């Protein structure tokens, strides 16, 4: 099952050169999930061939402009392009007021419904659940209410081994039980162990998105052992004081988060506009956590083992 | 005196490929005036080297998203980049509410003041006046309240001919009167005609920006004889009915506006996303008004005679 993330924006606060404000799109089993939506996200989607019509769920971490100012343009384009199917929007409650006031004055009535799920900043909550995944909000510690998002694939059924089922004449009505791991007892009393007739499914994968936060161990337990950890790293560690006063993380600290939470891999993002190139940020995180990459525009990271 | 316009966005409603929503920057005597501010305007400014710090006046025609959704990001970047000098914002009154609600929830207090001048849609008004120009709002006819903007250079003083002033020993205290066109009478009674001592200034130039409107003669008188007319041309004329039902103009009609108002030159813009290339729009307008160009991203048009 596909599980990959494409970066649409990597910049903090102000855009710079070819770096846009935060946005990413997750593709999980060919369903697209948009995470944050900074200004220019819809243009980035056009640029990288991401179809807005395939997005049914949008997650907004907080209400600093670099994380949501592209949303109204995207919602409007979905409307103008004939969308009628519902859109789920996971975000701090005031976002509804911000959207409504703008729709009101543009005299726009969207042709599709938005289902709002309001995030709360002080408690991890399951906010979404479908056949593929469960999504939890991650309480982060930023200047304003802010949550990250943890995407966990569900445990999948065991896979039937068609040739073995034929060989042992297993009736079709046992297949569902076999997928769940039950053994098969034939009419003659022979017991076939489940492992003989099925193979193990892929391990469920997980992705944690930690957008804007001061270094804080409060969310470490929740994100422990993820396959891929995206963590903001706004500054180099020589600007630790500035990072702390603005409730941001340094690249060194992001490496420490990955190390302490036993992440399999780390993505750095949300870079300050002061860094024209990003190698120093990458190198600094790697001193602590070697398997680190830069979440830069247009790159797709496949979550594997 | 410099008088030129650079196009930052040419698209209507939804962005497409390399076409961004409406925005333009006027450079008049090295002062920059931003007109409309669609999503991604600040990124376009970075791309084309337009410094936000040089902009003190922003004009927003109306509150459809493709004309203002880039504004909050730009205001925010100005704040983060240390701006303290006031910004004048000419726009429909509800824009203040839209800005204020977003600043409230991001807990941002801008470090510079915004002076709002609210436009009214039903009457042409002088809304700005400085040493170089006068700006009038142009009542347009769109689905929601919408004004265009007419920028007129002020008539300048006549230019002193230094060699003639020396030749005829004209005392310095007469210079101000000479610049206004007054003749000089010497102590011996000799009258020197003003034209002998001064030369004519450049003719004042004018630029009309007609953003979103149905074809309507109601504003023709106000914009007559401009040096450069920017007019929306969302559709080809084979979509006239659609243009009328959405309160837009066709390329053919834009040509007719330029012809009937005696514009010196016409710029077409605000192109529907359905047109992958723009030649047909240009050709259609030229059948009526030959001196027409496409207002596409990155192009600068110098307003000359």
TrEMBL record, chains A, B:
Cofactor binding remark: Binds 2 Zn(2+) ions.
Entry keyword annotation includes ATP-binding: no
Subunit-structure text: Homodimer.
Phylogenetic lineage: Bacteria, Pseudomonadati, Bacteroidota, Sphingobacteriia, Sphingobacteriales
Function: Zinc phosphodiesterase, which displays some tRNA 3'-processing endonuclease activity. Probably involved in tRNA maturation, by removing a 3'-trailer from precursor tRNA.
SUPFAM superfamilies listed in its UniProt record: Metallo-hydrolase/oxidoreductase (SSF56281)
Keyword Cell wall biogenesis/degradation: no
Residues engaged in binding Zn(2+) 1: 62, 64, 142, 212
Active-site residue numbers: 66 (proton acceptor)
Cofactors that this protein relies on: Zn(2+)
EC code: 3.1.26.11
Source organism: Mucilaginibacter mallensis
Protein name (record): Ribonuclease Z
InterPro entries in alphabetical order: RibonucZ/Hydroxyglut_hydro (IPR036866), RNase_Z/BN (IPR013471)
A GO term, aspect molecular function: 3'-tRNA processing endoribonuclease activity
Catalytic activity annotation: Endonucleolytic cleavage of RNA, removing extra 3' nucleotides from tRNA precursor, generating 3' termini of tRNAs. A 3'-hydroxy group is left at the tRNA terminus and a 5'-phosphoryl group is left at the trailer molecule
Enzyme class: hydrolase
Binding, Zn(2+) 2: 66-67, 212, 270
Keywords recorded for this protein, A-Z: Endonuclease, Hydrolase, Metal-binding, Nuclease, tRNA processing, Zinc
Family assignment from sequence similarity: Belongs to the RNase Z family.
């Amino acid at each position: 099952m596909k599980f990959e993330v494409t970066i649409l924006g990597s910049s903090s606060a102000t855009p710079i050169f070819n770096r846009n404000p935060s946005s990413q799109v997750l593709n999980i089993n060919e369903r697209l999930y948009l995470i944050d939506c900074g200004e220019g996200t819809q243009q980035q989607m056009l640029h990288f061939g991401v179809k807005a019509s395939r997005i049914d769920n949008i997650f907004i971490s907080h209400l600093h402009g670099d994380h949501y100012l592209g949303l109204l343009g995207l919602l409007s384009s979905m409307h103008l392009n004939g969308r009628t199917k519902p859109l789920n929007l996971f975000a701090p409650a005031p976002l509804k007021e911000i959207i409504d006031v703008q729709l009101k004055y543009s005299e726009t009535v969207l042709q599709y419904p938005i289902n709002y799920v309001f995030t709360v900043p002080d408690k991890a909550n399951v906010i979404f659940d479908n056949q593929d995944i469960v999504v939890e909000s991650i309480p982060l510690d930023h200047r304003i209410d802010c949550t990250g998002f943890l995407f966990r694939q569900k445990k999948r059924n065991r896979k039937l081994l068609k040739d073995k089922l034929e060989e042992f004449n297993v009736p079709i009505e046992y297949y569902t039980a076999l997928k769940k791991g039950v053994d098969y007892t034939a009419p003659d009393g022979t017991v076939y162990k489940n492992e003989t007739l099925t193979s193990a499914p892929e391990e469920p994968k997980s992705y944690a998105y930690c957008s804007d936060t001061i270094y804080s161990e409060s969310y470490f337990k929740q994100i422990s052992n993820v396959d891929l950890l995206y963590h903001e790293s706004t500054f180099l560690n020589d600007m630790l004081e500035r990072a702390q006063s603005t409730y941001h993380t340094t690249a060194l600290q992001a490496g420490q988060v990955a190390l302490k939470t036993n992440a399999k891999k780390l993505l750095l993002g949300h870079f300050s506009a002061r860094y024209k190139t990003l190698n120093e940020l990458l190198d600094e995180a790697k001193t602590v956590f070697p398997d680190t990459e830069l979440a830069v525009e247009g790159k797709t990271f496949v979550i594997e083992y």
